[in-house]
Amino acid sequence: MAWQERFSATTFSGTIAKLLLLGVSNALAISALPQLWSARAWQGLVAVALATVAIDVVYLSGRHVPLKYLLPGTLFLLSFQAYPVVYNAYVAFTNFGTGNILTQDQALEQVLRRSVAIPEDAVRYAATPLVDDAGSLAVLLVAPDGSQQLGTPDGLSAVDPADVVIDGSRVASVGPWRRLTLGQATDREDEVLGFRVPTGEGEIRLQSFTQAALAEQLLVHDPATDTLTNTQDGAVYLAAEGFYRTDDGQRLTPGWRVFVGFENFNRVLGSEAIRGPFLRVFAWTFVFAVLSVLLTFALGLFLAITLNDPRVRGLKYYRAVMIIPYALPSFMTALIWAGLLNQDFGIVNRLLGTDVNWLGDPWLAKASILLVNTWLGFPYMFLISLGALQAIPTDLREAAFIDGASGYKAFRFVTLPLVLVATGPILISSFAFNFNNFNVIYLLTGGGPPIVGAQTPAGHTDILISYTYRLAFETGRGNDWGLASAVAVLIFLIVALFSIVSFRQTRALEEVN
Amino acid sequence: MSADVSAVDRPAEAVGPIALPVRPWRPSRWMREVAWRHIVAVLACFFALFPVIWVVSASINPTGSIAAQQLIPREPTLDNFRELLNETSYTQWLLNSVMIAGVASALQVALGAHAAYAFSRLRFHGRRAGLVAILLIQMFPQLLAVVAIFLMMNNIGDVFPQIGLGTQAGVILVYLGGALSINTWMMKGFFDTIPRELDETAKVDGASHAQIFYLVVLPLVRPVLAVIGLLAFVFAFNEFIIASALLQGSDAETLPIGLFTFIDERYGSRWGPFAAGALMGGVPIIVLFLFLQRYIISGLTAGSVKG
Hints:
The complex is a heterodimer.
Chain A: H1 2-38, H2 42-60, H3 65-92, H4 104-114, E1 116-117, E2 124-131, E3 137-142, E4 148-152, E5 155-158, E6 164-167, E7 170-174, E8 177-179, H5 182-187, H6 189-193, E9 196-199, E10 202-206, E11 211-217, E12 219-222, E13 227-230, E14 236-240, E15 243-245, E16 251-252, H7 263-270, H8 272-307, H9 315-322, H10 324-327, H11 330-340, H12 347-352, H13 362-391, H14 394-402, H15 407-435, H16 438-444, H17 464-473, H18 481-506
Antiparallel strand pairs in A: 1-11, 2-3, 2-8, 2-11, 3-4, 4-5, 6-7, 7-8, 9-10, 10-11, 12-13, 13-14, 14-15, 15-16
Helix pairs in contact in A: 1-2, 2-3, 3-18, 7-8, 7-18, 8-13, 8-15, 11-16, 13-15, 14-15, 17-18
Chain B: H1 27-60, H2 79-87, H3 90-121, H4 127-137, H5 146-159, H6 168-178, H7 180-191, H8 196-204, H9 209-220, H10 222-238, H11 241-247, H12 255-263, H13 267-291, H14 293-301
């Protein structure tokens, strides 16, 4: 049989393809492991190693047939869907964000590096910037007691007074080094003034073209108590809550990330300045999702009922036109409508001869959002309803009419229930989709107009997901990933609650087969 | 979908299998019962086309400013297209979008089809648990965890810059994880409709499980692969939140981010070129939809929602 020949002919090439793919995946893993090792990324190391072992075991053995089909998908699902959720929950319990990105060791290193400063009673030097033939800089330093030293980026070195050539009252050269003329110094101003000479107890910095001073390490770290002490004023900084700070609350930046327990959740639900706007965003999310489904479904169903009449010709063409809003990428739709509704330049105001701030007024912005989302969604509902209507056997309506039902009653008690049964699951998934309909909100109004007095960036048209995004990526005072993740965890819980209810209602899980 | 076959001007024909009393065609009756339906339909079409018409008009308006725009410009011009192509990275954005959406959707279909085959055809321990897990996971869209995804890709980029922030590969990897469950679920439904007898016949002919999948089942499920591939493509083409978190400011920016950054509330001065960009990016997708209308509608009723 032809099939048999084909089956035996493809066995060999299948094996070759499998071995090639396995080779590639193993080669990738082998090249990745050393990099992960040297970056001390232990989680990644374990993950890559386990995945590679799993792949080899599954595909080299003759058993585990289902896993041969499921493993690639499962790996992606675990890495990019399941892991982010877990990681998100972890971040929600930390102070992760701008100013608290680093680990404590990295933060300490930066704090110490930044604490080098010139004290009031610093040792000051008369300085002469020098340059050699290669263009490297150095500086001749004359201490208050008259001793001379040469400073280079490598440190201080003694100067043989015989090498110093004086021209008039100024130094002309020191050995191979010539004095930097004022013109040269001005050209390389940043370089000259940024010149540092490391010494044992700190570093010598140029304060001007003629003066330098010894900058000292002001903070000293005591590993035993994990405290920093300021050598000048004696202030003691303790490591607490992600920062080194004094008892009276002065903090050194940067901080590092630490567990903060339920702190982020407390801020969302406990602090009035955050909770107030959060609850409004929360409420609007529901209102927006419910109204979006209702409006699109009502309009779509109305159109479907109107056009689902054998006497109406050209349904095909109407349908083709009405599919356009659905087909146009929604990011464009939102941006286009934002232009049409623009107060100063928008077509809508021009056609109406008005000067309405469609997107800037809290109530109008909400109305505009719903209008645009209705525009976006009604074709989908129209198509669905039309399909559902056409699937209803005509005898049912006929029977209702014979039984004496009016047109309205036949619709209300025969057609509508049947359409709702058919479209019910779609209405639920449409609600779920609109619950997180980021594009329409963010691209149309950016969540605005802002809620006055809100401590976080919250707007009158923000829904939970756009609020989360703005918390994470565009607050004025830096990004608050911990707080944003806490809000995301709350959304997860809400969605979970809804799924449980809807699965209970539809018994979808029991029918899984 | 044959509602438009029977026609008003052929009153002698019966409508549908049940013969209604045949009435002579009278204009007044037609006006009362049918004409208003056309009026509603035309109004709906006008509503649907309103923004599109203005965008087409803006793209060929000479002024470039939305304030002076005429619906039908006296001197139509292609300056807006020229300005957009010459002065922005539009081509780059479009290429990035097509690249990311193309690769992601192709791989998504491949991953989904394999998983769907296992769930539809093979019987194994944990199969039902796996299906329930998939159904549950697809309730939680990936974009909810956008913060964690951003931080995770940032960490990955520290070790492997090739797939970290600002790379196409990174975004593709993230998309691969995100849409898998819904794709698998929908494909499994379609796979179930292919008679199992075909598999068994092939098995008798000596086919291995892989040969049954690649040579027997896959050719039969091509329609569903096409629909899911298209929906996945459009989803990735449209996706804003993850792409902007991962790509903002890099060379790999996609069309949504590029256009959003370009228009930047400057509707006064950039409306014309923006409209040109929206047309060039949107029209191919619309055409694709119109061509594949029939398949998409059947895919829609299977419960998918466009992003």
